[in-house]
């Protein structure tokens, strides 16, 4: 049955399979590190510091990874990402005495590079597999890939906690390394050798995008993801545990369910934004959804500031924020691949996800700092400010004519 499918569909399925397996290990590893190092006596802020290299090297990787993908081919960058994740997992299967903060930060740096190589390769490869005149199909495929990734990252949170309980930290990371090694072997055998390779070898100086639309979208993306992570990454988990008294299991479980629901909404984004009526989104759609998210965040921030039903506001507000944020993210993910040049697509996608990683890095740093000096409501007001900037930037995004759904 698999052999009867078209070549592009088979490649899409293989890319998605690689991405799915990687994503589960990425989510599981994050949960393993948080829970295990908490058990070892690390403070919350020390645990947060373990992820700074993960985010920082995501910025570097997306910038250089797009250039590598265009020169070498997306199959090589995807397989390199899988191999590096295997190495990162094995690095953590050492005696506890070796698990110092610098060593774990190095392993997390390796994992951050691997994750963004894999993500850039997966999303760029879809552009290479879908004809330019089938924008509806492109939007649908991107939404499915993006939504499934986030849902499976939530599954990874559960897998990490489950493996830690059943087999322990070292066995868990070695088991995941073994699974990814098998995935890597299949990828080496199955992916097209020249997928995504640019016909003209780009120079290193071309890593910075010269497209106005991509630069504008990248700036909007940076502030969008900074707005999420400034309250979600560090401030929210600490707040749920310290103010509401939730256990680590409840905090991890709730955030895992949030990520799964977030991914589910991302997969539905084409229906939500009008693909069923023959429309694909443009810059105006990104503007409207960013403005809506800003208004919602301001409402949550004000309610938390005046301490009106804080537990209800945080839980329900987070769910609403997640749903609207998911549509924003899916719209951006479609627009970048739509705007990107067909030849050497990974250059444009890599630059864009560099901005995405920069937003996450800024949000992670601010989340710890702002929460420490001013609390959760201040983090939410910073989030609102970032979303207001995202909205203003989105005014400049290109407005396209509606095209028929493919």
TrEMBL record:
One of its GO terms (molecular function) is transmembrane transporter activity. The chain crosses the membrane at residues 12-38, 50-70, 82-101, 171-191, 286-306, 312-337, 349-369, 375-395. It holds the Pfam family MFS_1. The keyword Transmembrane applies. InterPro entries: MFS (IPR011701), MFS_ArsJ (IPR047769), MFS_trans_sf (IPR036259). Keywords: Membrane, Transmembrane, Transmembrane helix. It comes from the Bacteria. The keyword Nucleus does not apply. This is Organoarsenical effux MFS transporter ArsJ. The gene is arsJ.
């Amino acid at each position: 049955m698999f052999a009867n499918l078209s070549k592009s569909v088979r490649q899409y399925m293989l890319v998605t399979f690689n991405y799915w397996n990687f994503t589960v290990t990425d989510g599981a590893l994050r949960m393993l590190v948080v829970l295990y190092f908490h058990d070892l006596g690390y403070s919350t802020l020390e645990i947060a510091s373990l992820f700074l290299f993960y985010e920082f090297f995501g910025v570097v990787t997306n910038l250089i990874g797009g250039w590598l993908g265009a020169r070498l081919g997306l199959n090589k960058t995807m397989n390199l990402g899988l191999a590096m994740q295997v190495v990162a997992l094995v690095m953590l299967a050492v005696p506890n005495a070796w698990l110092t903060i610098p060593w774990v930060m190095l392993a997390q740096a390796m994992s951050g590079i691997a994750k963004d190589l894999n993500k850039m390769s997966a999303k760029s490869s879809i552009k290479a597999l879908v004809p330019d005149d089938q924008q509806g199909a492109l939007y649908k495929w991107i939404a499915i890939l993006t939504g499934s990734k986030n849902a499976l990252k939530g599954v990874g949170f559960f897998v990490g906690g489950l493996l830690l309980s059943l087999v322990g930290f070292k066995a868990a990371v070695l088991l995941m390394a073994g699974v990814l090694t098998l995935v890597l072997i299949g990828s080496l055998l199955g992916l097209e050798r020249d997928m995504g390779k640019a016909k003209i070898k780009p120079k290193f100086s071309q890593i910075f995008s010269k497209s106005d639309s991509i630069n504008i979208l990248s700036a909007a993306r940076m502030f969008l993801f900074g707005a999420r992570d400034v309250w979600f990454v560090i401030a929210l988990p600490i707040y749920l545990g310290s103010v509401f008294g939730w256990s680590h299991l409840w905090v991890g479980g709730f955030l895992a369910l949030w990520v799964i629901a977030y991914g589910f909404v991302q997969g539905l984004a084409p229906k939500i934004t009008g693909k069923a009526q023959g429309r694909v989104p443009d810059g105006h759609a990104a503007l409207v959804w960013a403005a809506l998210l800003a208004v919602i965040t301001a409402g949550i921030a004000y309610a938390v500031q005046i301490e009106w039903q804080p537990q209800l506001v945080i839980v329900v507000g987070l769910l609403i924020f997640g749903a609207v944020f998911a549509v924003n993210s899916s719209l951006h993910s479609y627009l970048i691949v739509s705007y990107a040049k067909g030849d050497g697509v990974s250059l444009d996608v890599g630059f864009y996800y560099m901005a995405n990683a920069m937003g996450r890095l800024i949000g992670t740093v601010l989340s710890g700092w702002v929460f420490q000096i001013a609390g959760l409501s201040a983090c939410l007001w910073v989030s609102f400010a970032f979303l207001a900037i995202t909205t203003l930037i989105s005014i400049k995004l290109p407005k396209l004519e509606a095209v028929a759904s493919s």
